[in-house]
Amino acid sequence: MTTSEDQGRARVHKQQFVRRATSVARARSFVANLLAAITDDGLAADIRLCVSELATNALRYGPRGRDFLVRVATHDNVVRIEVHDASDSAPRVCAPTRNDDHGRGLLVVAALADGWGVSGRTGSGKVVWAEFKVNATTLTARSRPPA
């Protein structure tokens, strides 16, 4: 179920996802639909890629049988993407070798986002977030839920 609400000056959209591989694509689509009005296709692609990386980490490292939540908050000229999961272990940036087939997700997020980090949350688990600066007039138009 998707929910949307105003929280102060921020517009917040969130959706819970079942912990399965197909949920990564669904999370990416959820965010892409919310950000469809962004005029800069490159930024929209960067945000989708970061959602994929963060959702994949929640799926890969989160506890079995527990869902994850994707939250998108728009405020002033910032889009904040959050992925909430029930794991208390903090993600770590790896130093993969050329031949490693994993370990680059947070490096990608760090390279594409204007900021990222990890926060605690009420109850068990954590929030891994990424923020992106956008044009304020685009953000106002995009903050409305899709029709």
Automatic annotation (TrEMBL):
Entries under SUPFAM superfamilies matching the protein: ATPase domain of HSP90 chaperone/DNA topoisomerase II/histidine kinase
Swiss-Prot/TrEMBL keywords: ATP-binding, Kinase, Nucleotide-binding, Serine/threonine-protein kinase, Transferase
CDD domains: HATPase_RsbW-like (cd16936)
Pfam families per the UniProt record, alphabetical: HATPase_c_2
Name the UniProt record assigns to this protein: ATP-binding protein
The keyword Transcription appears for this protein: no
GO molecular-function term, one example from the UniProt record: ATP binding
Tree of life domain: Bacteria
InterPro entries from the UniProt entry: Anti-sigma-factor_SerPK, HATPase_C_sf, HATPase_dom
Keyword Transferase: yes
Location of the Histidine kinase/HSP90-like ATPase domain: 20-130
Species annotation: Streptomyces synnematoformans
